[in-house]
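Re: weekly structure request thread

Next one in the queue (247 aa):
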Amino acid sequence: MTRKNLWRPSSGRLRSWLADESADRTRPVIVAVVLTLAGIGLVEVASASSVESVAAGINPYDLPLKQGMWTLAGVVIMFALARLPVRRIRKLAWPMLIIAVIALGLVFTPLGMTVNGNRNWLNAGGFTAQPSEFAKLALVVWGAAVLSRKQALLNQWKHAVIPMLPVGAAIMALVALGHDLGTTLFIMMILAATLFYGGVPMKVFGAAAAACAVAALVLAATNGNRMGRIFSWLGMGSGVEDHCAEN
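Done, posted below.
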């Protein structure tokens, strides 16, 4: 193999390498990374909430413990789902997607709740949930199921793009309508990763990336809160405005 091929592998070689059977040996590493990130997240929650909890006269451990319980439940569900046969997971794809879209739509009903300028929560009887988090998982499962069935047709534009991009765009639009640009961009990255690992030709990504970049710029420029967050991240904010943007 020439130096050029060594350092600039084609997308086909890269996918072959990622799909190699030796990748099974990385599963313990992936699990370790997931658990480590979850642990770091709990520490960050405790650090960020303790001062405000004490100031409000609330036990500073209440929120971290509550978050820890949900994290533990998520870990148990993760290991349980990992043992399910692929065919059963495929059967869940469409129901998960439909539930996710309905839940995202309910955000704009009286059940919806606005937090920090973003309308992306549901509040039903004191139980709160963020539908966009479930939508991320639903998009991955549904996308994998669709692309696996269309594997032999992905070299054709219409099969590479439809229905993945329209459905992904609809989910991103619902999240963006709630003014949550960060989650919208994250879902965009999930969609791109699903298409890449699913075997969609690289030429599709150029047009899609350009369209997504333009959409992200428009969404950012049309909202003062988003611009404040971006300026704060770039170090261009100061004083109270910088603090508000970070929150």
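Confidence is low (pLDDT under 50) at residues 1-10, 238-247. The longest helix spans residues 27-55.
Next request, please.
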